Amino acid sequence: MNLTCSLPKLQVIAVDIDGTLTDRAGLLDPNAVATLQFLIRMGIRVVLVSGRSFFSTGTLSTYLVGSGLVVAENGGVLGCYPHSMHVLADRMVVEKALAVLKKRMGNVVQVENMPDRITDVVCRRTFNLETANRILNEEDVPAKVVDTSFAYHIMDKRCNKGRALQVLAQQYGFDLDRCCAFGDYDNDIPLLKVCRVGIAVGNASSKLKEVATYVSQSKYGAGFVEGIRWLIRTNLL
Fold first, then answer.
1. How far is the C-alpha of 7 from the C-alpha of 161, rounded, in Å?
2. Is 16 a catalytic residue?
3. How far apart are CA 143 and CA 120, in angstroms?
4. Strand 84-87 relative to strand 77-80: parallel, antiparallel, unpaired?
5. Which residue range forms the structural domain that includes residue 129?
6. In this predicted model, what pLDDT tens digit does every residue of 114-155 receive, in sequence order?
């Protein structure tokens, strides 16, 4: 018996980009892109959710799915690119956190040159994450350092992908109980938790797989395609 038949079908797909829509080399998987286009033709709203900047995530959304709806910088900023932008983070808190970490940890804190960032600071993975977050707690700075597997991000402690998607849903009138989220790493955990269905691609971290409704056998973009097929097979789409 298919218990999903009595539930309302999903109307929104919120999907991470790097490691979820890309291949092992970091390039967009052509089959994943074709699947996004298929979803649009079905009338499904697609939200791109990323650690990338608002501008790069928004540009990708415009070309890939046409909606411009994005959550960017790991939940620090959201909106409908290029028409509107809503900043959730306090950049001054992030700058204070960076100054504290540089003072306490020294030259191991190496900042990447990314002038398009609005709400966070991106660092190389050259220092101990637990030590950095302990220092911020000791100094009573309301910030955190998040590992995205590609880099460390110094962020406003209040921000994450899940909270930002909740705000986006309120602003643009969609129901998270009819939303499925896709991701590949620990920073996607809040995203999967706020949606009715959460799917982890095969290369996902063990922590993300623990909270997922379904875990794809396939990795990277192929795992996204597999997850969409599972949603269709179970009558959720």
1. 25
2. yes
3. 10
4. antiparallel
5. 91-156
6. 999 999 999 999 999 999 999 999 999 999 999 999 999 999
Q: Give the DSSP letter of residue 230.
A: H
Tokens 């000791």 correspond to what residue?
138
Which residue do the tokens 């977050």 mark? 133
pTM for this model (two decimals): 0.94
CA atoms of 140 and 230, how far apart (whole Å): 45
Can you tell me which residue has the tokens 């509107």?
84
- Identify the CATH number of the domain in which residue 109 sits: 3.90.1070.10
Contacts of 44 (CB under 8 A, 6+ apart): 10, 11, 12, 13, 237
3-state secondary structure of 34: helix
Residue 191 forms part of a structural domain: yes
Of the candidates 18, 15, 17, 51, which has an alpha carbon nearest to the alpha carbon of residue 153?
A: 51
Give the DSSP H/E element, type plus range, for residue 129: helix 129-138
Angle at 215 between CA 208 and CA 30, to 5 degrees: 100
